[in-house]
Amino acid sequence: MSLNSSDDLDPLTVIIRLDRDINFLIMDYLVNEGYPSAAQKFALEANIQPRALVDCIQERVQIRNAIHSGDIQRAIESINELNSQILDSDPALHFSLLRLQLVELIRTCTATPNGDIAPALEFATTMLAPRAPTNPAFLEDLERTMALLIFPPENLVRPLADILDPKLRREVANSVNQAILSSQGAAREAKIRQLVRMRTWAEQKAREGKKIPQTLDLGLKLEDDHDYTEDSAMHDARDDTESM
User: Is the overall model pTM greater than 0.85, yes or no?
Assistant: First the structure.
């Protein structure tokens, strides 16, 4: 019997089933987003079995950490070791990784006055230039990235400044995580994110013709949190389910 027929259930049973569903939502989030230690800890706390082996999560975590730290070459090699078809079948993802690798090379050579830009130019010429003509978006991204060699980092304005923002690393890492999950037959994103989008849509509909506060905090401000830990991920997952 589902919760849709909760009128036939006693309140305690409804609470138990709701708590179980919330626990599985949290576990799904921790596994999908790549927090193995938090997933193990929460599985013991909630007395449930994790839906994926920790080793499988750890592979994604290592790739994510490599991207976050700017070691894109190591990330690409790890992806190919895990499944070479991931990048072969997704030219856009492969290009975004190579472009990010170029960004890291430019970041290094422009960090000091009169830095050697030869490695960045060679990489752009051999790895990105042949791919750029295949897609107008690729060409535009490459041109913007190469413009970083012309202007001093301290004088960059948007959208050039955004290319050097760590947020780009997180965006690429998220795309890679989704691609790996898809290649393993898993959902590309945690179910809780789908529910948050549904809530946002419902909120927008509710605002039509009604006076509702302009901002409703969903507790999902992760973009600027550089000290995000597995414990905070578990805490936020609980908060998100309780706020829906």
Answer: no
